């Protein structure tokens, strides 16, 4: 478990009047609860920074930084695997040591927090919105290219060529 004091920073909020910083200590950095640190998106980013710090401590030789929207689901899956491994051990051996029981309690708390963060992050909705924006950009580009070449987009021949090429692109067959 990462020592939270090693990733604790001062609140980044500043006073408009004095231009001084708040000064509250915040594990994971960012702003304190008084300045908006309790907001779900702020808590999600702070939890992600703590998870990154923990990963660096545990896997310093193999650590690869990822964006929070990739790290959170991966962390949730890892916690689930660890929970299943402990459950299997209890089923096979019938008992847990005190250390394993404490680890299970910490892991259960972490799984609950990460699951809530994943749920609150709306990752699937963000990916869908991004795909829609990219689709609109591609459609606008194709329309502009066809018009610049002096063709009518409503022409059946143009529509056939465009749809064939886009289908090949989507299927991965190339152009």
What is the fold's blueprint, element by element?
Layout lengths: L7 E3 L14 E3 L12 H19 L9 H26 L4 H24 L1 H26 L7 H16 L4
Antiparallel strand pairs: 1-2
* SSE ordering: EEHHHHH
Query: What is the overall pLDDT average?
Result: 77
- What topology, given as strand order, has the largest sheet? 1-2
Tell me the major beta sheet. 2 strands, antiparallel
The helix content, as a percent range, equals: 55-70%
Please tally the β strands and state the result: 2
Cα(first) to Cα(last) distance is: 49 Å
Strand content: under 5%
Shape: flat
Structural class label: mainly alpha
Number of helices: 5
Rg, alpha carbons: 25 Å
Q: Regions with pLDDT < 50 over 5+ consecutive residues?
A: none
Please tell me about this protein's structure.
This protein has helices at 40-58, 68-93, 98-121, 123-148, 156-171; strands at residues 8-10, 25-27. The chain is mostly helical and 175 residues long. It has a two-stranded antiparallel sheet. The radius of gyration is 25 Å and the shape is flat.
Fill in the keyword field for this structure.
mainly alpha; flat
What's this model, at a glance?
The chain has 175 residues and is mainly α. It contains 5 helices and 2 strands; from the N terminus they run ββααααα.
């Amino acid at each position: 478990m990462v020592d939270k004091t090693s990733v604790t920073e001062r609140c980044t909020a500043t006073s408009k009047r004095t231009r001084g910083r708040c000064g509250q200590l915040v594990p994971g950095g960012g702003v304190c609860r008084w300045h908006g640190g309790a907001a779900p998106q702020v808590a999600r980013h702070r939890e992600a920074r703590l998870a990154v710090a923990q990963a660096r401590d545990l896997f310093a030789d193999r650590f690869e930084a990822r964006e929070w929207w990739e790290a959170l689901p991966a962390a949730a899956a890892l916690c689930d695997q660890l929970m299943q491994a402990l459950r299997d051990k209890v089923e096979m051996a019938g008992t847990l040591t005190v250390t394993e029981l404490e680890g299970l309690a910490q892991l259960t708390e972490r799984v609950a927090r990460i699951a809530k963060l994943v749920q609150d992050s709306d990752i699937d909705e963000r990916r869908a919105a991004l795909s829609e924006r990219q689709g609109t950009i591609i459609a606008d580009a194709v329309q502009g290219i066809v018009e610049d070449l002096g063709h009518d987009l409503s022409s059946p021949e143009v529509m056939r060529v465009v749809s064939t090429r886009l289908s090949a692109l989507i299927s991965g067959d190339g152009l």
